[in-house]
Amino acid sequence: MLASSKDDENVVRGSSDQVVELRSVSKLYGDAAAVSSISLNARRGELLCLLGPSGCGKTTTLRMVAGFVEPSSGSVYINNIDMTHQPPYRRDTGMVFQSYALFPHMTVAQNIAFGLENLRWPRERRTKRVAEMLKLIELPHLADRLPRQLSGGQQQRIALARALAMGPAVLLLDEPFSNLDAQLRVRMREELQEVVRSVNVTTLFVTHDQEEALAMSDRIVVMNAGKVEQIGTPGEIYETPATPFVAKFIGWCSLLKGVVSAEGVFTSAAGLRIKADWSPGPGTVVIRPEHVKLSTGGSAGQAHQARVLHSHYSGGATRVVLDINGEQLTMQERFPFGHHPKPGDLLGITINTNDIRLISANEGQS
Ligand code: ATP
Fold it and tell me: Most CB atoms closer than 10 Å: which of 7, 114, 170, 330?
């Protein structure tokens, strides 16, 4: 750990469990706000993911934690020390960049040892640490290779080892898998999770890939246009989205705007009626493919006639876009071979209202 994080000056009383804390942090470029008054925290050993569409301010937020971008207002705390105006090398963070940024003329071992040399670690201790890191990422046989002699996945792991070598309080990862093909991304995702868990380092991870965020994170911060829309576990974000934006961004869904009557019947703008246990008033109903099922005699839920608009076969299941009373809903089903629905077919479906979420108008912006 770096000396700076042990300084007593600037220590604030806070939860010892909070390793990173952003308090109302904003970043303006001219008049444009890249990040607007974001507050969040990452707990010890937690893998926290910053998720959102391109340009929503994820990288700017990460760089403000690293110290590469200075906030226009607000404060950044690391281990309860105000780091807002401290340079990157005093923050006790390790960063893995999108491009990995390995030094091309240095071997793998020299790349990993780089930060340790700057900290003037004695040679013997450095060598031992590099060996530990190479073992952790399971590449001890590549110590003498140059970066250009490595695959993308291997370079990614070396960049991770370099960031972890100094034992930082916080590991920062900016879309670390963006240069890898789809299969390797999934494998590297699992490996990264294993490595960061084994060293129990608090990790902030930037991605725009919702599947990656759901699979890897302890908690997800969903961002949109420089603001936080919701912070929660993957389950909370998926099952109880706080806003229509979060519902739409995480997984497939149909959003139906409408009003719940005093009797608890929701009527959508196009006239689809759904009865559930919701409070009266305007809102948006989030219907995911798993809420829509083919009717069987005894199925629970509310029956409707649906017309098939499109169907997309993907091997294991078929995604079917349906028109129900003028609203478009999507279902995911496995149809028997030779019985795939075609545009224009009529299907009897039920909507299972138990798990459907209504976002009332005063909860989120539609
Ligand atoms: P992506 O997923 O595409 O990397 P992001 O969510 O990480 O996007 P940021 O890179 O944080 O988004 O950028 C947020 C906004 O701030 C964008 O509109 C971007 O154009 C703007 N921005 C970022 N850096 C600068 C800069 N140095 N000068 C001016 N505007 C900037």
Answer: 170
**Total residue count of the chain as it appears in this document:** 366
Residue 57 Cβ contacting ligand 1 at under 6 Å: yes
CA atoms within 13 A on the CB side of 13: 0
Does ligand 1 come within 6 angstroms of the Cβ of 29? yes
256 alpha carbon – ligand 1 mean position (Å): 32
Q: Is the CB of 59 under 6 A from ligand 1?
A: yes
Is 63 a pocket residue for ligand 1 (Cβ < 6 Å)? no
Give the homologous superfamily in CATH for domain 252-360: Nucleic acid-binding proteins (2.40.50.140)
Q: Average pLDDT, stretch 266-278?
A: 89
Q: For residue 245, report the distance from its CA to the centre of ligand 1, in Å.
A: 20
Nearest to 209, CA basis, from 201, 220, 218, 196: 220
Nearest atom (ligand 1) to Cα of 27: 16
**Which helix (H) or strand (E) segment is 177 a member of?**
none
- Domain residue spans of the chain: 5-245, 252-360
**Strand ranges inside 79-131, DSSP E:** 81-82, 93-96
169 pLDDT more than 90: yes
Nearest to 302 by CA among 248, 352, 338: 352
What number does the ligand 1 atom closest to the CA of 60 have? Answer: 11
Res 2: pLDDT: 31
The pLDDT value recorded for residue 8 is: 39
Q: Alpha carbon 205 to chain centroid distance?
A: 7
CATH classification code of 5-245? 3.40.50.300
Same fold, 5-245 and 252-360: no
Query: Global pTM?
Result: 0.86
- The percent of residues above 90 in pLDDT, for the chain, comes to 60
Q: Are 52 and 34 in contact (CB under 8 A)?
A: no
- Residue 12 pLDDT class (50, 70, 90 cuts): very low
